[in-house]
Design goal:
This protein is of the alpha+beta class and 159 residues long. The protein is 31% helix and 17% strand. A 4-stranded antiparallel β-sheet has the order 2-3-1-4, with helices on both faces. The radius of gyration is 15 Å and the shape is globular. It starts with a strand and ends in a 28-residue tail after the last helix. This is DUF3291 domain-containing protein.
Length: 159
């Protein structure tokens, strides 16, 4: 099994706005770091090399951008998420994105080789919003192993 993840964000301004210039400038370097990270398998992207042009989660608003990827493990995803340049971008997210009151990220296990689509990702976030963390859709703070219906013990999210 591999770990799928999706996160969405509501932009404070159009991607062409100077307010988002630092975020847009960081997309290619951070994506390159992700692509080379231990445990990285796949990420959603267009011919531009990122997913900012992908339209999904329309019920959440037209200014939503989506990021989806697949990793070998929760630990691999967390190591990338909470280190280096990606961590620096996380610290600045309030400059570029509106605060979302509902769940905006979800994780779930997929069979090796499966690449989730945006409809699947949207269903997982909606499930997490309605039911909280379950084996069907969970978070980095409350994870599940592919074999268990109980939250995974022993790993603590640094967030």
């Amino acid at each position: 099994m591999e770990l799928a993840q999706v996160n969405i964000a509501r932009l404070k301004a159009p991607l062409t706005d100077p307010q988002l210039a630092d975020f847009v400038a960081a997309l290619d370097p951070v994506n390159a770091i992700a692509d080379a990270a231990p445990g990285f398998v796949w990420r959603l992207q267009t011919e531009d090399g990122n997913a900012t042009a992908v339209r999904a989660f329309e019920d959440d608003g037209p200014e939503i951008i989506v990021n989806m990827s697949v990793w070998r493990s929760v630990e691999d995803l967390a190591a990338f998420t909470y280190s280096g340049q990606h961590r620096e971008l996380l610290r600045r997210r309030r400059e570029w994105f509106e605060r979302m009151r509902e769940a905006y990220t979800a994780l779930w296990w997929v069979p090796d080789g499966h690449r989730p689509g945006t409809a699947e990702a949207e269903e997982r976030i909606r499930h997490l919003r309605e039911h909280g963390p379950t084996p069907h859709a969970f978070t980095l703070k409350v994870t599940f192993s592919p074999e268990s219906d109980a939250p995974a013990p022993g790993w603590r999210c640094p967030a």
